[in-house]
C-alpha cells in the first residue's frame, strides 16, 4: 500500500480485508501463512488446554515425560525445542501445579531431573483427547492422503528452517529414533 492509499484509509473508513497479505509480506506469502496458522493453532490449543489447567507448550513437556519418564531438564529442553530459561519457567509452573517434581541427580549434582507426578498421569488421557480435537479442528476435512501430504510438507519446511537457524535442529519427529 503506498502513502497515498494509506492517507485514504482514515477518510473512507475502509480497512483491508482480514487475512489480506500486507504489501510488505508479498515476497513471503508462505511465511505469512505459517505465522497466521501458528497463531490460530496456539490460540485454539490454549483454549482447549485451559480446560485441564495447562498452558500451551506445557503439554509438550508432559508428553515427553509420559513417554520417557524421568529426564534431565537439559534433555527435556532439547526434545521439546525450548531454550533453558523457557524450560526452567515451564518446569517451575508445572511443579507449582503439581504435575512434575524436580530432583537433583544422584550421579551428577549439576543435573536436575524432572519426573511426572501421579496427578500428571491422571491428566494424560485428557491431553490426548484435547490433541485429538485440535487435530480434527485443524485438519478435519482433509482426506488421509491430504493429511499425509500436509505433514510431509510441514516436515520439509521445518527441516529447511532448522537448517538456517543458528545451531538449532528440528526436534525429533514422532516415530523417528531419538537423536
From TrEMBL:
What SMART domains does the record tag this protein with? Answer: HTH_MARR (SM00347)
Q: Which organism is it from?
A: Streptomyces spiralis
Output the superkingdom of the source species. Answer: Bacteria
Segments of this protein annotated with the region Disordered: 1-25
Q: Which residues form the HTH marR-type domain?
A: 27-159
Report the protein name in the record: HTH marR-type domain-containing protein
Give a GO biological-process term.
Answer: response to stress
Kindly list the GO molecular function terms attached to this UniProt entry: DNA binding; DNA-binding transcription factor activity
Among its keywords, does the record have Zinc-finger? no
Note one Pfam family from the annotation: MarR
Q: Which InterPro entries match?
A: ArsR-like_HTH, HTH_MarR-typ, MarR/SlyA-like, Tscrpt_reg_MarR-type_CS, WH-like_DNA-bd_sf, WH_DNA-bd_sf
Keywords, A to Z, come to: DNA-binding, Transcription, Transcription regulation
